[in-house]
Design brief:
Elements lengths: L1 H21 L3 H4 L1 E11 L14 E4 L3 E5 L5 E5 L3 E4 L2 H5 L17 E5 L4 E6 L2 E8 L2 E12 L2
Antiparallel strand pairs: 1-2, 1-9, 2-3, 3-4, 5-6, 6-7, 7-8, 8-9
């Protein structure tokens, strides 16, 4: 009897932990981030970001902040509207069908809209910053968290 109760309690905790791990919330991504790599760059773009000239970023409950190398900041207030990402809708954001990231390999795909120019994508454990130009994907940078917010 005692084993059944322990097994039931353990099962409940495991299920709750699994459900919590599968639900990504905005608070999960709050923190300080650095550029890790370029996931996508529009072929018409001339600028190529490197780790040496990359910005740092802060994601908080109410804003997204760019931390420039010279110490200045650009803060964008946002409510971070969250939505699931459909693979076909994502692919349609690209002007050309060249080097489009294959997001079908990710089990969890979420978008947090910052504004018309920027979005955060959470692809499983990866965090991407997307930049748009005229409703077309311009570039995607993978960010890595280096501190909590």
């Amino acid at each position: 009897m005692k084993r059944k109760v322990c097994a039931t309690i353990l099962s409940i905790y495991l299920c709750l932990g699994f459900m919590a791990a599968c639900t990504s919330t905005h608070e999960d991504i709050n923190g300080y981030y650095q550029y890790e790599k370029t996931v996508y760059r529009n072929s018409l773009g001339e600028y190529i970001m490197t780790k040496q000239d990359a910005l740092d970023y802060i994601i908080s409950k109410t804003s997204f902040t760019f931390l420039y190398i010279d110490g200045t900041r650009k803060q964008i207030s946002s409510s971070f509207k969250k939505s699931k990402v459909d693979t076909e809708e994502f692919a349609a954001l690209f002007q050309y069908n060249i080097n489009v990231p294959d997001i079908s390999v990710f089990k969890q795909r979420y978008q947090y809209i910052i504004n018309d120019e920027y979005s955060i994508y959470v692809m499983d454990s990866e965090v991407w910053l997307a930049l748009y130009a005229e409703n077309t994907m311009w570039s995607i940078y993978q960010l890595v968290k280096f501190a909590e917010e």
